[in-house]
Amino acid sequence: MAVLSTGPVDNSPVSTERLLVKLVNRDAVNGATVLIQGYHLDGSRTLYVLEQFAIAPNAVITKNYFAAFAAYEFVFTTGGPAEASTEISVWGLNGNGEIVSAQRIVADEELGT
Questions:
Q1: The sheet that has 60-66: what strands, in order across it?
Q2: What is the mean pLDDT of the chain?
Q3: Which CATH class is domain 2-112?
């Protein structure tokens, strides 16, 4: 099982309203699982997203989450036979649905915990 985190994200300078999360399983044969935990950070760490997904071989899942907080953090726990072939990216979106480049986190930039 791999645990990846965005780390704490300060949202005050750019005001992201939503997060677009992409889960990609690049394995042609095996499935994977991903547990998503989203936290609102406001002096305490409050869980507000808790979802688990099974990702079929060669599949992509796209999710949108509310993120209009001063700070947030997302933690992803991957498992299953295709764990090593599963990649996750997180994209901040403004009120118009446009990508906020300052809040783009791709697979290679996530923190292992």
A1: 60-66, 18-25, 86-93, 99-105
A2: 89
A3: mainly beta
